[in-house]
Amino acid sequence: MQTNNEIFIKAIISFKGRLDAVNSSVYEEKLNKLLENPLDSLTFDLDELDYLSSSGLRIMLVAAKKLASVDKKIKLCALKPHIKEVLNISGLISLFEIKEKLSECL
Amino acid sequence: MKKNIILKNDINELSLLTEILREIQTKLKFSDDIFFDINLALDELITNIIIHSYKNLSLDTIIEITVESIDDTLQISIADVGNEFNPLSIPEPILTLDIEEKPIGGLGIFLVKKKIDKISYERKENKNILILIKKLT
Fold first, then answer.
1. Which residues of B touch A67 (CB under 8 A)?
2. Which of A5, A82, B42, B96 is the least buried, fewest Cβ under 10 Å from its Cβ?
3. CA pair distance A10, B7, nearest whole angstrom
4. pLDDT category, B45, cuts 50, 70, 90?
């Protein structure tokens, strides 16, 4: 009998409140742990993210680079206008797959 | 309206700063979009000071911020006692680079320049002073 031992991991991280210099390190730590696994897909659920500064952009870019090295793009879903604007201005938005709803990312 | 704010050399002071900016917004009744721009700009500049300029300085080293409404603008000055450093001299990031070449960081000051109408730097009395002007209408 043939067995298939391959495991596919689809990960979703929900960011809440503010992603700035005060709390980005907490997310960074969790993200780094997660990125040790071979991920089939990675989604950032931003529905409850109200604020994003360059400290937050930094960890998003690090994660995007890591996934790009295996030809994958992180999915960002449910971005609020301010969050989208910061990603736009900083020229990072094209590095991600933008989705309206979390259901599109599953 | 004029308000002086003193922040300590502690990244958690950013939460306090946000609270104070909310109070100012309530008083002057400007939009959430403008609040967001001001919050982001100050956040980036203060983060830079604490993480870089004040890295090896004690917790009680202060950053002085003055927020003043002049006509339909908000004028904000930020003074730090760190080594001479003009954040406006940092070269702008090249936004079109491929993901592999994109440097980590360097976007903070760029965001400030995009969000604030006018910004200037001076070195005075051993302090780095940034003056920001944001239109409120």
1. none
2. A5
3. 42
4. very high
Euclidean distance between CA atoms B12 and A81, whole angstroms: 26
Q: Which of A18, A19, A20 has the most B C-beta neighbours within 10 Å, making it the best mutation to test the interface with B? A: A20
Mutating which of A18, A19, A22, A92 best tests the B interface, going by the most B Cβ atoms within 10 A? A22
Cα–Cα distance for residue pair B32/A76, rounded to 1 Å: 23
pLDDT score of A63: 95
- Predicted complex: ipTM over 0.90: yes
| B119-125: long-range contacts, CB 8 A cutoff, minimum separation 24 | B119/B88, B120/B88, B121/B86, B121/B87, B121/B88, B123/B84, B123/B86
In single-letter form, the type of residue at position B79 comes to A
- Read out DSSP for A35-85? HTS--SEEEEEEEEEEEE-HHHHHHHHHHHHHHHTTT---EEES--HHHHH
What single-letter DSSP state applies at residue B129?
A: E
What are the beta bridge partners of residue A44?
A13, A76
Residue A72 sits at φ, ψ, to 5 deg, of -125, 155
> Which of A21, A65, A82 lies at the smallest CB-CB distance from B14?
A21
Q: How far apart are CA A72 and CA B64, in angstroms?
A: 45
Burial tier of B83 (Cβ tally within 10 Å: 0-12, 13-18, 19+): exposed
Measure A4 CA to nearest chain B CA, in Å. Answer: 33
What kind and span of H or E run contains B112?
helix B108-115
